[in-house]
């Protein structure tokens, strides 16, 4: 079942998406309509190129978003990009807490990171993982604040902002849709170590084997 076409994404007084209300009910509604799909992993070509812009905002996109929420839940993730389930489209979903424990749930179509002034950036050097590099973690410095512009599932323009862990999620998922995995931002040594961790362990969810 597709989402209602007249659904409106709530916006706050500063023009940002209100993604902290009714999170549990909204996430449940998405995934109950959706079907969980296996996760593509590093080495799959769809993960290593920029995805296509979304130009059609209808039932097909709504079904994809439902499936993404279902897949994210199965894999116990906090964010998921469309190419992580093999779909070449600029869409990501999230169900992620920030550092204050506030839950954020939503969808961004055709996302773009807003460049922050260099002087205002504060880097957070924390562990990062990825459903497409299962069982591996590495420390990666990212700005502790992020803004993303894009569209909602109906094609309306939106802005999303986040701090701490949620800021990391917004950057991580946007990276995916432009062909970058977090391990691509690591040193050669740390990237090799992450791939070793992946090879030595078994993922807890279904993946798409690379040929």
UniProtKB/TrEMBL annotation:
Q: What is its EC number?
A: 3.5.1.88
Reaction(s) catalyzed by this protein? N-terminal N-formyl-L-methionyl-[peptide] + H2O = N-terminal L-methionyl-[peptide] + formate
Known SUPFAM superfamilies for this protein?
Peptide deformylase
InterPro entries attached to this UniProt entry: Peptide_deformylase, Peptide_deformylase_sf
Q: Which Pfam families match?
A: Pep_deformylase
Cofactor(s) required for function per UniProt: Fe(2+)
Q: How the cofactor binds, per note?
A: Binds 1 Fe(2+) ion.
Question: Which UniProt keywords are listed?
Answer: Hydrolase, Iron, Metal-binding, Protein biosynthesis
What is the documented function of this protein? Answer: Removes the formyl group from the N-terminal Met of newly synthesized proteins. Requires at least a dipeptide for an efficient rate of reaction. N-terminal L-methionine is a prerequisite for activity but the enzyme has broad specificity at other positions.
Q: Which family does it belong to?
A: Belongs to the polypeptide deformylase family.
Enumerate the HAMAP family for this protein. Pep_deformylase
- Can you name this protein? Peptide deformylase
Organism encoding this protein? Streptomyces polychromogenes
